[in-house]
Amino acid sequence: MAERSLIILKPDTVHRGLIGQVTTRIEQRGFKIVAMKMALVSQAKLDEHYGHLTSKPFYPEIVAYMTMGPVVFMIVEGDNAVGGMRQLCGATDPAQADMGTVRADFATTIRYNLIHASDSVENATAEIARFFEESEICGYERKAI
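Given the sequence above, the corresponding structure tokens read:
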């Protein structure tokens, strides 16, 4: 099986109408989207996902940001999906992101940085299990139709 990464298109991506542009970049990079859904994320789920940040003074801002509207969860699959998606996203601070990355091209501030991508294969596995049931994942082979 190819490597997988969890991607979250954050509320600013949804509010600004950038879902299509971001998913196009993912697919043009050669990755397959094998699961996708839009949902509101609960604080309990955020506390689990961002457990390493809950004691930080800025954590309430993260919760406010991530609960301001729906997000799009995706599972992206392909060779080096974790590293490739991190590269495609760019640095967390859009001011430091390389040109041509999602954050350099579309994000406005570090606070509103559009996208989350798993930072390791191990974390991807845990994050995917946190937000998706196995039955929601649709494996397929690309075919010229």
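The chain is about 40% helix and 20% strand. Try to locate this feature in the token string yourself.
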